[in-house]
Amino acid sequence: MQPSIFNPWAWRDPSALAGGYTQTTPSVTPPEDQDGGHDGPDAPGPGTPVDLAGYQVQASDGRIGTIDEASNEADAGYLVVDTGPWIFGRKVLLPAGTVERVDHQERVVHVDRTKDQIKDAPPFDADPADPEYRERIGSYYADGHLPPPGAVPRVM
Fold first, then answer.
1. Cα–Cα distance between 115 and 135 in angstroms, integer?
2. Based on CB atoms within 10 Å of each CB, which residue in 38, 72, 95, 123 is the most buried?
3. Whose CA is closest to 89, among 68, 107, 117, 110?
C-alpha cells in the first residue's frame, strides 16, 4: 500500500472557490421562501469565482475567526484568519489543504483541525510566500493530517 501524500497548499476541492449550492445539478436550484425572498445573503452561482474574505472559519470543535485574505494559487493556496479575541487578536495562516468544505450560503469555511491545533501552529508571518515559513507551516499541518476512514491513498 502506498502512503497518502498530503499537499497542504492544494485545495482539496477547487470548486470550493467557485460558488455553488449544496446540490448543484442543473435541475436543482435553491429553495425559495413562499414570498420569494430570504433572510441571508445570496450564494454565488456555480462556477462564479468567490472571494472568501469575510467568511467565518469553523474548526472541528468551534469557531476560530474570520478570513482576512485568501489565495487560490495552484498548489499555493492559503487562508489568513483573524482570530479576534480567541487567541489575543493573533492572525493564523491555514493552508488550503486544511479546508474540509465551504458553505457559501452561510459564508462559513470548515477546516479539519481543532482549535488547539490551530492555536499551536507556527506564528503568522506577514510574508506567506517566504519559502522557509511555508515549509514550517506545511510540515506542521502535514504532520497532523489524518486521511478520512476508508480513503484511498494517493501519490502526488
1. 21
2. 95
3. 68
